[in-house]
Design brief:
The complex is a heterotrimer of chains A (about 160), B (about 400) and C (about 160). Chain A is α/β, with parallel strands linked by helices. Chain A contains six helices and four strands. In chain A, helix 2 packs antiparallel against helix 6 and helix 3 packs across helix 6. The termini of chain A are far apart. Chain C contains three helices and seven strands. In chain C, strand 6, helix 3 and strand 7 form a beta-alpha-beta unit. Classes of the chains: A alpha/beta (about 160), B mainly alpha (about 400), C alpha/beta (about 160). Chains in contact: A-B, A-C, B-C.
Amino acid sequence: MGLETVFGHSYLTTRLDEAVNWGRKYSFFQYPFVTACCGMEFMSVWASTYDIARFGAEYPRFSPRQADVLFVVGTVNEKLAPVLKRVYDQMCEPKWVVSFGVCATSGGFYDNYATVQGIDKIIPVDIYIPGCPPRPEAILDALVKLQEKVARESVLDRKYK
Amino acid sequence: MTDKKPEPQKNWNLESLEDGRMVLNMGPSHPAMHGIVRVLLTVQGERVAASDVEIGYLHRGFEKTCENVTYNQCVPYTDRLNYVSPFINNVGFALAVEKLMGIETPARCQYIRVIMSELSRLTDHLTCIGANAMELSAFTVYFYLINAREALYKLTDSAAGGRITPAYTRVGGLTRDLPPDFKKNAAETLKIVRRNLADAGALLTRNRIFYDRLHNTGHISKEDAIALSFTGPALRSTGVPLDVRKATPYLVYDRFDFDIPVGSNGDNYDRYLVRMEEMQQSIRIVEQALAQLPDGPVNHPDFGVSLPPKKEVYENIEALMAHFKLTFEGVKPPKGEVYQAVEGGNGEVGFYLVSDGTGKPWRLRVRPPCFSLTGGLSQMIQGGYIADIVSTFGQINMIGGELER
Amino acid sequence: MNSYLLDTIKGKFPGEVLDTHAFRGDETVVIKKEALLKAAAFLRDELGFDFLMDLTAADYLPREPRYELVCHFYSSRHNYRLRLKCPVEGTDPKVASLTSLWAGANWFEREVYDMFGLMFEGHPDLRRILMYDGFEGHPLRKDYPLKKRQPRLAHRD
């Protein structure tokens, strides 16, 4: 005996958060910030065998201003770090960051003068994917985890400046 | 589009920007620049008047790191040089250390190394052409070729335990032997690769749009290519039949019957054709190697070089000591220096190794083939259209890990 | 050892060749750095070494002369390889550039400059290639610590 019975088939009641998050989590526009080896697995996930399109995230936008999710795929070194920061700053809210592979997560086994020890030293990260490089299954798992995280958010959480 | 290459106008320079010239930045975060190369272009209209290629966005200190780890610990780092054809780097590094020590691995090991190298060459060329076709809007080809690559990854995964970073070789041998059903799986995989290659070739080779985008773009002459130290498909597309596998055969390459495809024009289309034919030759080599594959051990019998079998370690004090010393101190080649070249996906991959007699290399230098190729990029795109940069850059197959190490 | 190639080079530059050896079959000539350009031109024009396959350096820190410039040549006509090395002092790290002979030496020398700090005289555009502008020091020198990091700089537009 809810509102549905009064309004017939013309309305569906839900919380605003759930409606918005439902739309967001199944239509990620990703920005692939591909630098290194992990890019090969990223290509595999795009292609037909693993098919990231099943999760609604197949469409890459190569302009950060049109993207929701920043995939940092591969090693980021000191020379590239300012570029990554700028790309992140150019993205519009709401935005999420996936750190893809151990190099992006922690520097991996490159612990030397050139590499940044994890992109979370530069930008905030939502999901970390371990692996060097991660297998495609792990990437899809991370995407599902990100969807779950997005579903828990509220549209009021983020400050829209 | 005409078949004539436009004359590069030599009298333009970066300082004076009159006549509607402007500076255009491409990269480093640009889809056609594969994420890590920056090209500063001075353009006049749609033509490139001058360019400055800037690299270094993926420099991760490979050479310095390797000076601080043992020889066998270097192997995973070599994977990540040319991550599209990791086995070739593994093999090149192992051969360099073995040359330094003056040892030779058993025949079965050499055959397996050849098989794995050629499978790697296939993945390299498949990725290069697939990505290049995708950048030129032929998305279907990308799916066909990545499908073939996926089958190859599955095969190498079954043997080495890793899809992209297998770290399969050790000094004096391999981490493990091939799985028992490898021959059968390889035959099936090669069938898939052949079919996908035929599909992709039918879609691309005589495709008017693809042909126009590649033909007579990124042209380089034979003399310039030699002066710029080009190797691999980029050099062979100009008509120089130089291939390390034929010129100075390593492993057991002299036992196989294969051809070196060469181009005549030195443009992107020739590079594409050379790569397509090289894949057929690689399949031929793998099939011959699988047919000839001998039985026997895969590791060097000397316990000072390769790890003793586990049973020996548990039961024999000598083997236990060898195991301990090898794990903690690593193999110790004599003092000296060697240069070992192998034919990588993009050309000659050279390992220059200096040993001071300890368990760690004093200096390890990799000669990256696409370093020279990217160095020649400015010359290849000079005078062409901006859109042709995409096809030229795709066909030199820049691999960041190898370029900047 | 008696190699025709090594003997030819020794005969051509009697006072300048410091050493020759062929460890594991890699024929090597060590030459004074003043004669580098001359010897490289001789190799290219007279002996048919048309490829400069690789140009790099090595740092032997406690030793003086500290650096060694290492060139690998390849002759496609004779299918033959040769290594040419020349010692470079740490106090005066200057050496002639090979860019006038091989255009491909340009980037190789920039990398050696970036990593080791050797100055190539006659190079048209000697600047850093792998590290960023503003990076201090030369990372592949043996006295540069592996994990020494430097403050990050803003991106150059």
